[in-house]
Amino acid sequence: MNCPIFKENQALQFIDLHTHHPCGEPDVLEIESIYPGQYLKGKTRWFSAGLHPWHLGNIGLKEAAGWLRGHAANPGCLAIGEAGLDKVTDTPWALQESAFEQCIRIAVETRKPMIIHCVKAYAEVTAALLNASPVPVAIFHGFDKHPQTAKMLLDAGFFLSFGAALFRQNSHAAAALQQTPSDRFFLETDDNDLDIRSVYERVAAIRQIPPVQLEEQMRQNFTRLGLDITG
Ligand SMILES: [Zn+2]
């Protein structure tokens, strides 16, 4: 496995792909998610920056794209996101589409993977991603949909990220996780008061694999994202 981030930080054991509340603990590689108007909390040096569909109101799109370009150039920026489309939020659809296009363009230019926020817009989000050239690596975060939706995304070449929904009884997330190949998913805490270690424990139990095997798999998956991490 050839990933500088693990070579330089041998204590890293867990990966929290997407969090708004980094814990700052030395064994967790955590990607703090920020959008325009937010600042990093200083607990982790790795982050993702994106134009979140919920938070497009306070800043012009041109300015927001400039903010994103600036952050994407930072070596600590491992991914573009959250980015995507949301049919439940009040943000005008056309504005969401324009912001998502900007995010896709910058992800393609910088060759960074995308962390996708998608609510009731799977057809539109996948169409926009598959339209890009080359198609960016994209991870649908907080996945909690039917296994059929998971299959559609996996067949299209995308990744899934699982978190809090796995703790609910009979969740779609657990069913989808069971059908997801081991090299196509990540784990996250998102906005929840969760320890990433407990997510690992839950997933190891659902998939009936030893925790160390899951840890190794997550490191491999992360490495395969092709991240050029030097920061
Ligand atoms: Zn989030």
Give the SSE map.
Blueprint: H1 4-8, E1 14-19, E2 28-34, E3 47-49, H2 61-72, E4 77-86, H3 93-110, E5 114-119, H4 122-131, E6 138-140, H5 147-155, E7 159-162, H6 172-178, E8 185-187, H7 196-207, H8 211-224
Parallel strand pairs: 1-2, 2-3, 3-4, 4-5, 5-6, 6-7, 7-8
Helix pairs in contact: 2-3, 5-6
The chain binds zinc ion.
Residues 18, 20, 33, 82, 190-191 line the site of zinc ion.
Descriptors for this entry?
8 strands; binds zinc ion; globular; 38% helix; 18% strand; 8 helices; 231 residues; 8-stranded parallel sheet
Explain what the structure shows.
This protein is of the alpha/beta class. It has one domain: Metal-dependent hydrolases (TIM Barrel, Alpha-Beta Barrel). It has helices at 4-8, 61-72, 93-110, 122-131, 147-155, 172-178, 196-207, 211-224; strands at residues 14-19, 28-34, 47-49, 77-86, 114-119, 138-140, 159-162, 185-187. Strands 1-2-3-4-5-6-7-8 form an eight-stranded parallel sheet, sandwiched between helices. Strand 5, helix 4 and strand 6 form a beta-alpha-beta unit. Helix 2 (61-72) packs parallel to helix 3 and helix 5 crosses helix 6 (172-178). The two termini are 18 Å apart. Bound molecules: zinc ion. Residues 18, 20, 33, 82, 190-191 line the site of zinc ion.
Quick recap of the structure?
The protein is α/β, with parallel strands linked by helices and 231 residues long. It contains eight helices and eight strands; from the N terminus they run H-E-E-E-H-E-H-E-H-E-H-E-H-E-H-H. It has a single domain (4-224), classed as Metal-dependent hydrolases (TIM Barrel).
